[in-house]
């Protein structure tokens, strides 16, 4: 059996995840059946040298398509929405846009530095059809005299649920966009998925009402959201779903409650393949489109009721683990830009994110070269033991981030070497240095099962940090036999060459577990370390770090929640009034040249569990009348979204400062010690229960 | 001499229909973890799942429970004749990848016994409660239109659970539901002496192979009418007339009815 390491560089795009997913990881990508499909992508636009402004969509498209002409295959760029160009901020066009492109686009991007100037970053989405962006709504969606629009981006949204209805039985959902599922003949908001406006939902509710009772199974079957004749995950088919629970906490009301009538809902269901693949590297274009869609539709609602712009609060209860953790990942920057563009709006726009549930996941390690106890003093090397589980059907990734500063020319500050499980039977890789776009692959019988590359973003506006990404294939595959990655400990050896005192190397394992309600695919890999203590002498899980151990709990905050603008919410136990053990926190890293990071951790914590024994909080199951318990920072965040909506109705502010202010105020009234800032932010929010009914006698 | 009339006629769908329906087995399997407890409990019948809806307890309503049991026995005996005659293969005989979560019964697949029995009982219960509501009317009976939906939806859920479990095709539930609704109304007619019932059928070859089981397309519980669907009736199906009341069943029925006053 041939088994060898070879030198290799990026073949597709500038992002190692994209390179892997279109290259060696291609067969394991959900929905990869088509030979040369279109893909959604989130692009960061660079500057047009001719105008000095951000390059226009038209110029970008023509430049790529001109470069791609003459070679076989589809055009590089199928569609870029001019919608984003109309969002011009005070002076510049928004950098972030969503586009529909082919694999050739990424190929050209990897090869052509001039095109990299136009598009410094491109995040790969999923295979998709292509058509138009969101058009004007086909029918007006009058919701009544609403005062705020609550946007929810999630999975498994039960849009027929009575918690989202008016007293007369019609829906409070003005618009819902399911980003996957059957595309109706009349078109879809962005060339994929299906839009349901209020009129369509009301019509379906009526059609499915028998004996005065809505047949919700029939509703979801006819709507195409749970049709068992169709393939794909059916989030609303089970008794509980993440999105319904979250949306109830954010915007669910008893239909007779007049407060509900004032809150219109615009919701977006992400493609289930995006949710199923929790490494999350490909959700960026969908979330970016979803946020723009929610705001666009909110403006339509305002126009419809002749009220002028409405305040909008968007809840996005998703998380990933690996990233720069300084707010500069593409999705974080896109969310910040989105909020920034609309800051001048007469009414505010807020985004709420969870701080993540990975505190005890062992997915973070940090290497500091000023403490000899962590380093082999002689060789200045340290080993990351990346434990990859058997029966993992998805690719696994580790990101290793270096301190700010471009890599030295022709030299490296650190070098990296990979020893797969089973060494020495399996060969160890050569040392990989800081050569942008370059790295190594491990080939078994001609198939690449592992690839490690170094990248550095040369854009003037980027993270400014070098990064190694190590990607490996799944450890099991049920299709035709393929060479896979062995499970066990992958040893990533890091050798310090020129990093000095205080310069820290961070490593994160990317999220790769299986989300609520999905069949098991991913299994979470983690960093093993001999001195990592999981339990105290009483058998309780330890929540604090030992300075001697390179594997850390600190800094596992949701990797898409370290940006400047969103309100980020952790979880605490209502009864015990302590931070939930899973609730992740900072510290985060300052942005380049900034004196302090944008946040130390979450802005505040809300209830993630009613008590130690009462797991989770109660909110809607998928069917009207049902109540289920779900746990996590995912359910803490929407309680804050609800509070912000209330503030907006009252004409008050609802940004992260307001949330922190409320937490500070609530904390002052408490008798137990405040949680540490890195995990608790400004403190424990005391929010009105809403649907978060406590299950114990106080 | 007793003259027998044909009450129900059933024919077998084509092999292609069953093969087509395997996709449903694949998709419905996603609900296995969600429905596991119900499915395990319902292996040997599911009448206990109706009692919480109507508030019936054997110690307080023994005749109602006995009537339900009689209806179930009648359904069981009938469905087994059809299963034996039609000899349709179970899903796991088409593909080992169905891997049912419970043991597949040894008898044939179509019609589904769970569907037949549940819809027979559901129909009898609804008819009994309508009769009771016409009398005194209190308690749950006041909620009759809603209650009818609830009972029918419970029957449907039990039938669908068998597809989730991997032991039935949706078309088995369709055939079972049509048969069960017919048997239920026949039994209630014989009890009440209601003149005239319609002969009904399940025409397997006419069933669209890619269709799921949806009882609402077969029966309107509010209006108590069978909906004419291509594969359940033909224009020459007859309406039987005459005095069909069975004195024995009438006695039985009235005893059950008296428990609801």
UniProtKB/TrEMBL annotation, chain A:
It holds the Pfam family Peptidase_S8. GO terms for biological process: proteolysis. Keywords: Hydrolase. This is S8 family serine peptidase. Residues 147-645 form the Peptidase S8/S53 domain. Residues 657-698 are annotated as: Disordered. The lineage of its organism: Bacteria, Pseudomonadati, Pseudomonadota, Alphaproteobacteria, Hyphomicrobiales. It comes from Microbaculum marinum. The keyword Hydrolase applies. PROSITE patterns: SUBTILASE_ASP. InterPro entries: Peptidase_S8/S53_dom, Peptidase_S8/S53_dom_sf, Peptidase_S8_Asp-AS. GO terms for molecular function: serine-type endopeptidase activity.
């Amino acid at each position: 059996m041939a088994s060898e390491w070879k030198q290799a560089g990026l073949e597709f795009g500038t992002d190692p995840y994209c390179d892997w997913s279109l290259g060696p990881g291609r067969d394991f990508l959900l929905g990869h059946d088509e030979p040369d499909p279109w893909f959604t992508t989130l692009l960061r636009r660079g500057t047009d040298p001719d105008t000095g402004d951000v390059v226009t969509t038209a110029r970008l498209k023509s430049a790529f398509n001109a470069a791609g002409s003459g070679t076989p295959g589809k055009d590089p760029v199928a569609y870029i929405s001019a919608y984003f160009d109309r969002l011009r901020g005070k002076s510049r066009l928004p950098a972030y846009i969503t586009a529909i492109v082919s694999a050739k686009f990424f190929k050209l991007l990897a090869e052509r530095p001039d095109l990299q100037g136009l598009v410094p970053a491109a995040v790969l989405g999923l295979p998709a059809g292509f058509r138009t962006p969101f058009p004007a709504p086909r029918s007006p969606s009058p919701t009544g005299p609403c005062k705020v629009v609550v946007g929810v981006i999630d999975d498994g949204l039960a849009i027929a649920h009575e918690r989202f209805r008016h007293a007369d039985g019609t829906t409070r959902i003005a618009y819902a966009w399911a980003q996957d599922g059957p595309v109706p003949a009349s078109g879809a908001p962005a060339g994929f998925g299906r839009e349901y406006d209020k009129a369509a939902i009301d019509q379906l509710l009526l059609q499915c009402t028998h004996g005065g009772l809505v047949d919700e199974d029939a509703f979801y079957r006819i709507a195409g959201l749970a049709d068992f004749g169709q393939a794909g995950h059916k989030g609303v088919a089970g008794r509980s779903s993440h999105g319904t629970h979250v949306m109830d906490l954010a915007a669910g009301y008893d239909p007779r409650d007049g407060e509900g009538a004032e809150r219109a809902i615009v919701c977006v269901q992400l493609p289930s393949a995006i949710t199923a693949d929790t490494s999350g590297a490909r959700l960026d274009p969908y979330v970016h489109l979803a946020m723009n869609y929610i705001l666009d539709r909110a403006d339509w609602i305002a126009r419809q009721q002749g009220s002028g712009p409405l305040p909008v609060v968007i809840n996005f209860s998703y998380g990933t683990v690996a990233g720069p953790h300084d707010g500069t990942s593409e999705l974080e920057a896109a969310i910040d830009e989105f909020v920034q563009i609309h800051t001048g709006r007469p009414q505010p726009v807020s985004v709420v994110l969870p701080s993540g549930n990975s505190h005890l996941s062992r997915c973070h390690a940090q290497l500091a070269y000023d403490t000899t106890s962590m380093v082999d003093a002689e060789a200045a090397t340290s080993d990351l033991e990346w434990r990859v589980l058997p029966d993992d059907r998805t690719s696994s990734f580790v990101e290793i981030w270096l301190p700010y500063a471009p890599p030295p020319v022709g030299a490296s500050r650190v070098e990296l070497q990979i020893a797969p499980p089973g060494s020495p039977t399996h060969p160890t890789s050569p040392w990989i240095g800081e050569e942008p776009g370059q790295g190594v692959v491990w080939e078994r019988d001609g198939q690449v099962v592992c690839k490690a590359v170094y990248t550095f973003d040369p854009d003037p506006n980027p993270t400014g940090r070098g990064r190694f990404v190590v990607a490996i294939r799944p450890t099991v595959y049920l299709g035709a036999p393929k060479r896979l990655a062995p499970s066990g400990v992958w040893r990533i050896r890091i050798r310090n060459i020129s990093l000095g005192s205080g310069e820290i190397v961070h490593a994160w394992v990317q999220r790769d577990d299986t989300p609520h309600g999905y069949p098991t695919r991913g299994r979470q890999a983690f960093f093993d370390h001999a001195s990592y203590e999981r339990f105290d002498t009483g058998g309780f899980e330890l929540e604090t770090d030992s300075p001697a151990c390179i594997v850390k709990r600190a800094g596992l905050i949701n990797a898409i929640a370290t940006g400047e603008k969103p309100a980020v919410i952790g979880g605490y136990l209502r009864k015990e009034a302590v931070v939930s053990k899973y609730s992740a926190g900072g510290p985060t890293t300052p942005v380049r040249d900034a004196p302090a990071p944008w946040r130390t951790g979450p802005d505040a914590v809300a209830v993630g569990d009613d008590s130690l024994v009462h797991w989770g909080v109660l909110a809607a199951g998928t069917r009207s009348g049902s109540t289920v318990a779900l746990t996590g920072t995912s359910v803490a965040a929407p309680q804050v979204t609800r509070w912000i909506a209330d503030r907006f109705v009252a004409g008050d502010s609802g940004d992260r400062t307001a949330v922190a202010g409320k937490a500070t105020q609530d904390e002052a009234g408490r008798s137990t010690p405040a949680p540490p800032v890195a995990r608790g932010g400004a403190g424990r929010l005391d929010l009105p229960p809403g649907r978060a009914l406590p299950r114990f006698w106080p | 001499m007793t003259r027998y009339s044909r009450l129900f006629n059933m024919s077998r769908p084509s092999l292609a229909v069953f093969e087509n329906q395997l996709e449903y087995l694949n998709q419905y399997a996603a609900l296995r973890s969600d429905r596991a407890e119900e499915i395990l409990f319902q292996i040997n019948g599911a009448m206990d799942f109706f009692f919480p809806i109507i508030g019936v307890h054997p110690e307080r309503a023994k005749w109602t429970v006995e009537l339900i049991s009689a209806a179930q026995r009648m359904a069981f005996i009938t469905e087994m004749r059809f299963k034996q005659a039609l000899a349709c293969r179970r899903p796991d005989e088409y593909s080992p990848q169905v891997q049912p979560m419970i043991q597949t019964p040894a008898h044939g697949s179509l019609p589904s016994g769970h569907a037949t029995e549940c819809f027979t009982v559901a129909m009898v219960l609804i008819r009994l409660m309508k009769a009771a509501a016409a009398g005194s009317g209190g308690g749950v009976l006041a909620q009759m239109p809603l209650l009818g939906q609830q009972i029918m939806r419970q029957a449907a859920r039990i039938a669908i659970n068998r597809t989730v479990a991997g032991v039935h095709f949706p078309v088995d539930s369709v055939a079972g539901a049509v048969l069960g609704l017919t048997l239920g109304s026949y039994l209630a007619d014989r009890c009440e002496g209601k003149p005239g019932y319609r002969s009904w059928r399940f025409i397997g070859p006419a069933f669209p192979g890619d269709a799921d089981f949806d009882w609402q397309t077969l029966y309107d519980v509010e209006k108590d009418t069978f909906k004419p669907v291509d594969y359940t009736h033909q224009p020459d199906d007859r309406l039987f007339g005459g005095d069909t009341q069975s004195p024995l069943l009438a006695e039985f029925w009235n005893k059950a009815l008296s428990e609801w006053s």
